[in-house]
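Researcher: Predict the fold of Protein-glutamate methylesterase/protein-glutamine glutaminase.
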Amino acid sequence: MKKVLRCIVADVSPLSRKIVRAALEMLDAVEVVGTACDGISALQRCQQLEPDLLTLDVELPGMSGIEAVQRMQDQNPNCRVIMISSLTSSGAAVTNAGLEAGAFDFIVKPIAASLPKSVQRLGSILAPCLDAVRATLVAEDPSAKSGRITTRAVSGTPRAVCIGVSTGGPLALSRLLPQLPSLFPVPIFVVQHMPPFITRSLAQHLSQSCELRVVEASDGMKGEAGTVYVAPGGRQMGINATENRMAIVLDDAPPECNARPSVDYLFRSLASSVGGRLLAVVMTGMGEDGVEGCRSVRNAGGYVLTQDAVSCVVYGMPKRVVEAGMSDYVGNIESIASQMTRAVGMGGFQCI
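Model: Structure tokens for Protein-glutamate methylesterase/protein-glutamine glutaminase follow.
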């Protein structure tokens, strides 16, 4: 039986509040206990009603979305915040900053021809988000303790690192990348499940928080050491590698695991291109995208790191990799950063 989620809807627009409320109420095991029209009243309602979930318009008056998220972390740490954003440059920037500040997830406001269609479309978007929220509210034993799982002999210094991440990813990346040296000797390719436009803002935001160069990938772009390439929303990212060169290939291949960009797609492409000289990392996120990609990496002779349950916002994607027997090492963000640095700087995976 599903846990009933008690929700508060915060949006400046009465129509938007009506749509969000109706979308939530059409879902199973959801109770909307209150609404708010600005950030201050949203915090007050949350303090009074102690909800499980707050949906937050990123452009509320009276208090920025970022400040509201930060204050929620102190005031109601057990309440998950889902930010609702428009596809604008300002909305994208606030969304990424809010995710880094601790928001659970975000959704983009759907555009539909009628009110019923808007409600239905928003409900279909919110449903998996609420399942992810429930997953964090139910205690479960981690699938594996932190530390080395396998002792496979994997030779060769990696030519590339690939990272797959979803819910909680912006926060995880903002903690991982600053721990890597600016002279990181190989390119890093990232798939973060996000729609178009938001990934560009994410790359810009991450670039300001670490010493590495972080860019949104474009077709034909050369993979260079010390650079992080974020797959653009709505495109699949593959890598075409020769002995001395890597080039990014973007295309409109179908979604995999309901995702485009897909972790499986990137990992499989890199495993085919560089073989065993590959380090794959799967971090926080809902679902199973990455399992088959990690299988390809391991079959090619590469090495797989997964984030542990304690440090994940949602222990879904890495858990599935561990359960499939495809993880070589489980650890928190700090230990993953250390393993990455050692692998590329000390002669290969044997040193991990």
